[in-house]
Design a protein that fits this description.
heterodimer, A: mainly alpha
Chain lengths: ~100, ~625
């Protein structure tokens, strides 16, 4: 693994994060919004792994496990919201749920 | 004696039960709670009075607990029972109980009986606190409490707007007096270092020389409070409008008890007034002027309750006159007798009003004596006492004493005013009785009068009627130990007899003239007062010398004009600018709350990017 420079890993993580944020902002289908969130979480997790490998520290992997757990919890809550959204609005468009507008 | 707090705790308990029931109690059980609580208080008072008179001690002090403690200022919740407060609590609970009992009949079928009895019990509680308190602060608490209850009960029929305004007027005018009283309390505390009444009476002569300006000012300020509460000139205008409340309220608050609180206050603080002879004379003078002006005004009223209201002012004028000549015991004696016969008159008026389907204008009553014998008897007995019919009525003894004391103190002018007032009293009393009960029935309401039935209706009238005769005058309030001896006490020379005969003759001549005028010349009189100068005089008297109109022109309208001017002032605009700014910002910010999740995410991402950029560039 030492063959891959740290910068490459970090650039990959940044690209993944940017993709995720772009998907989060641009997508209206909630399934894709959730997927974008997962991508962002994974990008952050990748950054931890890359950092941990580069410095030879185990904390990076510990943080990865934490992020995975978090992502699982987030996915379950997000899917529950998705089901509720579909149940109430008969659509998966997140913009439909805008009753909180000021 | 340890039962003393029960006298006011029982009515308080009644109030709490009624207030906390939140409408779960029906009208009948509300009336029972209201009447029984005051009835028990009356029993306790009778028990205490029996033991107090029996024991022969001058006074009992009872400190329940310290109310506040700020440096030297330690007012207590302390009670003082002596002859004066015993007399007052006797009137309040005794007459109060009879009026509550009558009210149970009067309020049948009215809306909000629970509210009515809750307020009535609260009133009795406050009034008892007022007369039992051993310090001025507790007295002031009761003083404000009765003012509040008066306001609440005048506005009892709040769905009629005029009643609300009448309640406002009573509250604001009496509050004017209360402000004077409060300043008087501050002054006394500053000068004497205490608000305890016994200590005030003890220290005042030590600190102040007779006629010292502080003593004069203190007496004047206390007088201001008393004038407001007791409806004396120039703060008397509220009482006639206060008749908007239910009639038992008028009987209890605006005749028998609350309006006499001013008399009680001056009698209680007689030591301060003795140090200011000029102010004391002013008390008598105000009383004399009020009793005359109110007597004339009572002559020209058509509403039977308003006649009684002006007559109340006039009778309290007698009490002030007595106070002014230093005859405190005569004032308190008249207070008690007035409590009996004026309560009787008001309750009889209440009986007439309910029987005649809430008709209270004399011009639409008449000829009722055959239909409403009990109310008629009440009016005759009460009216005779009011007009001081010689020898057989209570009013004769108390009024005669006042006139004699005035003469004995060397105030011939005040005595003369009292005599003229007695003549006027006879006239308007007969006009009231003849207008209501004799002649022809002038409306369907009178023709279809239904007499009240039952013990609850009859008992209070009968008991009060008995007390209004000479039997009531046998009650001898134990005031010797509390109040200084008056100038005319113990002097029973030929002068007293002559004055008694003159007073009796005045009252009889007034009654005779009234009987002739109103029985045989009623039609001629009513035609006479509708044209020419007589009409103008009638108008003046009917409007009680135009005080209301003058106050409206001089005070109310300028005040409202000022308010209107201030309503659109620059400072207000400046403050409004801040409000406009806040509103604009609110509009701008609320636009950002679109409710769209993606928009929020984008904004957050932009924000994070910005922060990171700043960190990178500056770091």
């Amino acid at each position: 693994m030492s063959g891959v420079p740290m910068e490459h890993g970090l650039v990959l993580a940044s690209i993944l994060f940017a993709l995720g944020i772009a998907g989060l902002i641009c997508r209206r289908n909630m399934v894709f919004v959730l997927m974008s969130l997962e991508i962002m979480l994974n990008a952050a997790a990748l950054a931890f792994i890359v950092g941990g490998t580069a410095w030879g520290q185990p904390e990076g992997q510990a943080m990865f496990l934490l992020v995975i757990t978090l992502a699982a919890a987030e996915a379950s809550v997000g899917l529950a919201l998705l089901i509720q959204l579909h149940h109430r609005y008969k659509t998966l468009d997140v913009d439909a749920a805008n009753r909180m507008h000021g | 004696m340890s039962l003393l707090p029960l006298t006011f705790l029982l009515p308080l308990a009644g109030t709490l039960v009624l207030a906390l029931s939140r409408g779960r109690l029906g009208p009948r059980s509300s009336a029972v709670v209201g009447v029984v609580s005051v009835g028990l208080a009356a029993l306790v008072t009778a028990w205490i009075g029996w033991h107090f008179v029996d024991s022969g001690v001058g006074g009992v002090d009872m400190t329940l607990w310290t109310w506040l403690s700020v440096g030297d200022f330690r007012p207590t919740i302390g009670l003082r029972l002596d002859g004066l407060s015993l007399t007052m609590i006797g009137i309040i609970t005794g007459v109060g109980f009879l009026i509550h009992l009558f009210a149970a009949w009067y309020m049948q079928g009215e809306a909000g009986v629970t509210r009515f009895f809750a307020f009535m019990n609260l009133f009795v509680f406050s009034m008892l606190l007022l007369v039992l308190g051993d310090n001025m602060l507790l007295l002031f608490l009761g003083w404000e409490g009765v003012g509040l209850c008066s306001y609440l009960l005048i506005g009892y029929y709040y769905w009629t707007e005029a009643n609300g305004w009448a309640a406002f007027k009573a509250f604001i005018v009496t509050r004017l007096g209360d402000v004077f009283l409060a300043i008087g309390l501050f002054l006394m505390f500053r000068e004497l270092g205490t608000l305890n009444i016994a200590e005030i009476l003890q220290r005042a002569p030590e600190v102040w020389a007779e006629g010292a300006w502080q003593a004069q000012l203190a007496a004047l300020l206390i007088l201001g409070g008393a004038l407001g509460k007791s409806a004396q000139l120039p703060l008397h205008t509220w009482l006639a409008d206060a008749m908007a409340g239910p009639t038992p309220v008028s009987a209890l608050i605006h005749a028998a008890t609350m309006v006499t609180a001013g008399v009680y206050l001056i009698a209680r603080l007689h030591g301060v007034f003795e140090l200011a002879p000029g102010v004391l004379y002013l008390v008598g003078l105000i009383g004399a002027v009020t009793l005359l002006l109110a007597g004339f005004a009572a002559l020209a009223q058509t509403d039977i309750k308003r006649v009684l209201a002006y007559s109340t002012m006039s009778q309290i004028g007698y009490m002030f006159l007595a106070l002014g000549v230093g005859a405190y015991d005569a004032a308190i004696f008249h207070l008690m007798m007035h409590g009996f016969f004026k309560a009787l008159l008001f309750l009889s008026a209440g009986a007439v009003i309910v029987s005649c389907h809430h008709e209270q204008d004399m011009r639409r009553l008449g000829g009722l004596w055959r239909r409403l014998p009990l109310a008629y008897a009440g009016f005759v007995v009460g009216g005779a006492a009011l007009a001081a019919l010689p020898l057989v009525t209570a009013g004769f003894y108390s009024k005669d004493e006042i006139l004699w004391e005035a003469l004995a103190a060397g105030h011939g002018g005040l005595m003369l005013a009292g005599l003229i007032g007695a003549f006027l009293t006879s006239l308007y009393t007969l006009r009231l009785i003849i207008g209501t009960f004799h002649g022809e029935m002038k409306s369907d309401n009178a023709r279809h009068a239904e007499p009240g039935r039952g013990l609850v209706h009859g008992l209070p009238l009968v008991v009060l009627a008995v007390l209004s005769t000479f039997l009531g005058a046998w009650i001898h309030p134990p005031l010797e130990a509390v109040l200084p001896t008056s100038p005319g006490a113990g002097v029973h020379g030929a002068g007293h007899t002559v004055l008694g005969i003159v007073a009796a003759a005045t009252s009889l001549v007034g009654l005779g003239l009234g009987a002739w005028l109103f029985l045989t010349r009623w039609r001629w009189l009513s035609e006479r007062v509708s044209t020419g100068w007589a009409a103008r005089l009638w108008w003046l008297w009917h409007n009680a010398w135009g005080f209301d109109i003058a106050y409206d022109r001089l005070l109310v309208r300028p005040y409202r004009g000022l308010v209107r001017l201030l309503e659109s002032d620059l400072i207000d605009r400046l403050l409004l600018l801040a409000a406009w700014l806040a509103w604009g910002l609110h509009r701008g910010l609320s636009l950002t709350q679109s409710g769209k999740m993606r928009y929020y995410a984008a904004t957050m991402a932009a924000g994070v990017t910005l922060v990171l950029l700043v960190l990178v560039v500056s770091g």
